[in-house]
Amino acid sequence: MTLIPPECHTAVRTKTAKSVEFVVRCETPWRNFQMRLGEGVDYYDIQRCEECKIECNSIVYHAYNSYGHGFSNEALTRLNKKNRSWSIPHMKSNFLTVNVFFRDMSYIEYGQIQGTSLTETLSDIGGNMGMFLGMSVITVIEIVMFCFKIGWITISKKRRDYMYQKQAREKEHEEQLEKTVEEFKFLHDHKYGSDTKNDGAGVQTLTSSASFENDAKLKDDQTEVEVDHQTRPGPTIAPAKPLSATEEEKEKPQSD
């Protein structure tokens, strides 16, 4: 008996139960092909492929067979009424019933779908760059600008000359700035060093002059005190006045 792949369940035309005339639109897991059967030879002429592609869609149907008791009494009666030559014992011995149906209402379907879309891919790349590299849109723009400038310098001679002159001017400016800072530092140190020496001499002069002034002031104070004692008049005692006659008469009884 000729075996037919499960995928070739359509577009099959048979002459007899043991031969197949042709099969079209036969889709197998290997590739699409047409199956030919030679006359009197029971085999398939399947095309060989080195790199077999995976099918885009695949539906798997499982086939089962089971055996039952046979026809029911009602079915035998109906068949006997259609043809009186079919007796019930004859039908039980020579008739066979084949029932084709879906055993399960569910089926398994294999299909290829896109794992990640373009949006998800860009989102993953941006998330990883932002988390691990700290990059953003501004960083990407800066990188593009840097590459553009490098390419511009490589191609344009005028741009290279301008960059060389700019670098020379910046270097000269830095040297002048360093020289100016050193001069200011030297002047600052020289100025504050001389001021410190002058301040020390001035402190000594002020101290000596202050002590001299204090000594002179003390001497002047002592001289003024002595002069004051010499020139200030002492207490004077006035002479007693002579008493008059009336005053003598008044004082007599008091003395008595």
TrEMBL record:
Main localization category: membrane
Keyword set includes Thylakoid: no
Keyword annotations of the record: Glycoprotein, Ion channel, Ion transport, Membrane, Sodium, Sodium channel, Sodium transport, Transmembrane, Transmembrane helix, Transport
Start and end residues of each stretch annotated as Disordered: 195-256
InterPro entries for the chain: ENaC
Transmembrane segments: 131-155
Keyword Ribosomal protein: no
GO molecular function, one term: ligand-gated sodium channel activity
Compositionally biased tracts (Basic and acidic residues): 214-231, 247-256
Membrane topology label: Multi-pass membrane protein
Places the protein is found: Membrane
GO cellular component: plasma membrane
Secretion signal span: none
Similarity-based family: Belongs to the amiloride-sensitive sodium channel (TC 1.A.6) family.
Protein name per Swiss-Prot or TrEMBL: Amiloride-sensitive sodium channel
